[in-house]
Amino acid sequence: MEEKILELLGTKDYSALKELLSSETPQDIAQAISRLDENSIPVVFRVLPKELAAEAFVEMESAEQELLIKSFSDIQLKQIFDELFIDDTVDIIEEMPANVVKRILKSADPEKRKQINELLNYPEDSAGSVMTTEYVTLRPAMTVMEAILRIRRTVVDKETVYTCYVTSSDRILLGVISVKDLLVANDDAIVGDIMNTHVIYATTNQNKEEVAREMAKYDFLAIPVVDHEKRLVGIVTFDDAIDVIEEATTEDIEKMAALVPSDKPYLKTGILEIWKNRIPWLLMLMVSATFTGQIIKSFESALAGSVILTAFIPMLMDTGGNAGSQSSVTIIRGMALNEISMKNILVIIWKELRVSLLCGIALAAANFIKILLVDNLIFKNNISMTVAAVVCITLVMVVFVAKIIGSSLPILAKRLGFDPAVMASPFITTIVDAISLLVYFNIAKIMIENL
Amino acid sequence: MEEKILELLGTKDYSALKELLSSETPQDIAQAISRLDENSIPVVFRVLPKELAAEAFVEMESAEQELLIKSFSDIQLKQIFDELFIDDTVDIIEEMPANVVKRILKSADPEKRKQINELLNYPEDSAGSVMTTEYVTLRPAMTVMEAILRIRRTVVDKETVYTCYVTSSDRILLGVISVKDLLVANDDAIVGDIMNTHVIYATTNQNKEEVAREMAKYDFLAIPVVDHEKRLVGIVTFDDAIDVIEEATTEDIEKMAALVPSDKPYLKTGILEIWKNRIPWLLMLMVSATFTGQIIKSFESALAGSVILTAFIPMLMDTGGNAGSQSSVTIIRGMALNEISMKNILVIIWKELRVSLLCGIALAAANFIKILLVDNLIFKNNISMTVAAVVCITLVMVVFVAKIIGSSLPILAKRLGFDPAVMASPFITTIVDAISLLVYFNIAKIMIENL
What we know:
Two copies of one chain form a homodimer.
Chain A: H1 2-10, H2 14-22, H3 26-34, H4 40-47, H5 50-59, H6 62-71, H7 74-83, H8 86-95, H9 98-107, H10 110-120, H11 127-130, E1 137-138, H12 144-154, E2 163-167, E3 173-178, H13 179-184, H14 191-194, E4 202-203, H15 208-218, E5 222-226, E6 232-237, H16 238-256, H17 271-298, H18 300-305, H19 308-311, H20 313-336, H21 345-378, H22 385-415, H23 425-447
Parallel strand pairs in A: 1-2, 4-5
Antiparallel strand pairs in A: 2-3, 5-6
């Protein structure tokens, strides 16, 4: 699409450009626009039909949105923002510098400005921050016919009409009814009689990831959000829920890989910013490896006498790290998906204990055979049976310790109110490294004479 | 809820049990049932109203489904499966042993059996395998009034009615129209005039994760699936798309942590099965660490002369591993989210090159200060300036190599048709370990006399 846009821009054939873009989706237009140079973006944007322009605007990255807002007159700004849903407006405002925010708020009419300010006040991680205030409400006394008429009249301004909320006159949430239910019912049935009164709802201050996962569990198109008096104040729609889940998962993955989470796409992030996301953990983990080094240092004289022991350090450290991160990542993901909670901790430790012994013994056996066949027969390293025994016993113990720590630390972290994802691979690797070496050298000291 | 169920089971108060369960969601009922003992499950299931029973059945784990099917008479089996949507039936069948599958297929009427068999034939990762054949089709010549009437007549049997598909008489997909569009339109408008003809669709053999991500991108409730002649054969609904994305993400995370992916929840997996998911990579990575050991072995005499060099091995290996996995995980997640593709490889390498130098230099500087202050001043390790220089220069090179390998390997893997997630942390750690040590010892040899 970009080539065609560039071609039509070159020949200034704006009517052909308008026709080309009119049949595209807002998402694809936003993507194409993001690849144009800064001067062409406002030009292309201006040929879009009003509604499509607003839809494409919502899908853009904040850098392009800011660029466009700066190119708008106050009237154009108002036209675009009047087309947007409240929750999208709030999302955009949250990323803009103060002077741009001021202009946007000034362009909104007082009622809308009040709603925007209310939504901006919810904490960043709350359901309130991702909800929209545009939904369909019905009254319990309405007939199905009246309900459908009401939907038909208001449908244009609502983000979703497929789930309708039945409220009392003081906005208390009484029930939900889907358009599907309304379509199968008789025209003169009463909404209050056929609505579902077992409503699953979220509260404004509930964690947004928790709410999104709840929606995914129940296959909801939308979930109602109520305040502390059970008054309906908004809804979260499934498209926002998917975004919340994707973002939370990316954050977890980043934390597990020792990165400071960032919500900017990689290709749009500057190298200084990438550096700032990476250096803190690298530094911290580097410094904490000092202790591991110190352990080696304290066995210096022993190692000078049997340098072959050094050759097994990388294998023991790596295996410990891998065994630990297998367990920690399994548990962290299980907790994110609500499959595992604090109350399972004993079951988990008992399971990991048995799995770690199975893994450790299998690895030790394989390693023993490897030492005989590869190290001694092929590489002629002449590793003594005593050293082989030290390495294999250490292996069993390292895998055991790694899996117990790897599985219990994330659960304990969550219990203490920390983010379990931070307790993943790199952190656990550092702990397991130190323990592995201590175990290794002490077993060596006991088993090898004159060490 | 479980306590209440157990209480009512104890007093055999089945009508109270029925009332309790009738107001619960199928998901919560399935969850509660999974915690009961094997004998109580069929008893509780039998008190559920027919439709709710079918809905709860779909939400259960395969172990409980199999247990229930075995407790059903042929008539009960037919009753439950007649209530299910085709795609849910197929999902269940895929997890059942052959004799159970035979019973299910035998209970279905010929038309349904044919549809089930067709869906079973699609490859496991394809859009065809997750689609349903129950959707609403309209004809272009219908009026809006006729379309709404058709929807109202067929709504009960369709998984979603909110997106309707307009087809020709030979089932070619011509357009889509949402119930929202129909509700705002005039009763006598013609569907063919107001439908959206720029249809985004999937093909039966397309990868299901790709299709699910496409749906998330466009905020679709459902996407039409066509065969190679553009005939509509099914739709994928948003709830299945969310499941596909969640499963694919869990698989990626598992692969990145050196686990063989499994789609069973951790708490329901036996220890032998967990062992089988973990041991292959542990073994493979352990054996490949042999090469790292061999590198140390070949510098044995040098190390015997300067054991202090050994003390820095864990720090260099860990930092290399962390730096590499930061890059690989960033790139793998970016590819999964379609933010990064093969064509960005040069941009990425150029970016990583600069970031790695920034990280490497910062780490080297910090490490130099740490050696002076911590190692020499506090621990009195007396590390010479030459050794400190060797360590710091190695650090810069290790971070550089780790980040370049970590960012390019996943992209190359994808290019060659492998799964990029496998190229994550553990694999890259092993490669980076070997390279780190080679660099380290060679720099040491050059810079330290008599080594």
